[in-house]
Amino acid sequence: MKGCCDILSAFKNFGVTFLIAIVIFGIIAYFATGFVTGTVTDILSNEHDKLDEIIGSTDNQPDETDESENNPDDVPEKEIYGDSLNFLVVTTDYRPDAYNTYLPTSEKIATDHLEAHKPEDLFGYLSGSYRETNVTSIVIVRIDKEKEQVIYSYITPLMRVFTSSGYRTLSEVYNLYGIDKVADYVNSMTGLEFKYSFLLNGYNMDELINTAGAVSVSVGKDIYNDGLYNTFSYQSAVETEDRYGNKFTEYVTNKYIMSMGYIKLDAESLYNASSVIEHSASDLITKQALAVELTRSYLSYLASLDEDHLMSVMAHMVITEDLWESIPDILEKIEPPVPEETFVGTPDLPFDTTPAATETVTEPVETEPEPETEPAETDVPEETEAPEEEPEETEDNGLFEPVNPIIETNFNINEFYEIYELFRAVNKFENKIITYPCTYVPANEESDEYFEYDVAHGVAMFVDYRLISEK
User: Following DSSP, what letter does each residue of 132-192 receive, concatenated?
Assistant: First the structure.
């Protein structure tokens, strides 16, 4: 009996323990199951949302292309029309409107010779001290669309070259042979061929300001005048002699003209800044920075203009003032280049040319009334009378202003669209300055001061741009 009771007691204890375990683990299992179920549900819902996004993104693929179109970095830019361009910008200090001491022209000398009553009337031509015309800056500009660069390089007008008449500076080459010969020598010094040259004389700088506006530049040194020409030197060495005939050097203080610093240039200060002549290696560095900044500033200004404004400004600069009234008619006839695609198939449509021919015939018919042309002819004498007043003033004081365009150039306004897109890209391209290698040689008993250039090194500096231009 005792053994049977022990067995029942063991079953009792087991049953109680089992029930307690069921209760405890049941409670734990309830909360654990809820936690796991919630976690799994969240995971599945997130995956479902991502699946919807993926499906939705495939359905909205055109929206992605729209975003790329709105991003300018992803849109290929249109190729710039025209070839990379080289040109020269040349300035002079020629001011016959302000100085009457220039050497007379051959026509003037011939006229005076005929009007002279006695030989003594012509002695002044042999003994007089005349003011020379100096080229004051030569700037090379290359707009390189392949490298997306605008290259500037200053060539001092005092660079000495060998000519058929001996050694001459580039300034002397200009006075003897003209600007085309200067371009030839710069070509031999760099290997670059120049499509255009732009010449700005001193007497037209006020008109440049009136037409294109004023620019601000940094002038690196004070500017003085030595009695004839502008210089960076505050004093000049003058060879003189005492009453006994002993020669010695005397230093004379030059006249102060303009201070250094960042200056907005008007007509007079533009002339003073651009007409400075360099007399040392230090002066060359200062003049190079000034000439390049002047050129870059005006080129940047032109590049900022819209198409019609740019065309108008350039026309006013390269056409003489007496023809300015006809500029609107001239510009109206200039048409932008037509894309090559539009020419496909035109040989098969010869009849397209006949309407154009009939249109040109009808235009004169519309202007049949001939009396309208007669008043125009009466206006011509009025225009010719105005220039006749200028010689009267020149007879009194010898001052005059040549009738030339603001910029003397071989560029024709009809070629506007050949350079338009290149000019517009100037402000987007990188600016690069190339310093041409040369050495300053002071004046001595045999020659005046000059700069001697290193042609081998100079040509090598431009070889990359020359090879591109030859393609």
Answer: PP-EEEEEEEEEETTTTEEEEEEE-TTBEEEETTEEEEHHHHHHHH-HHHHHHHHHHHH--
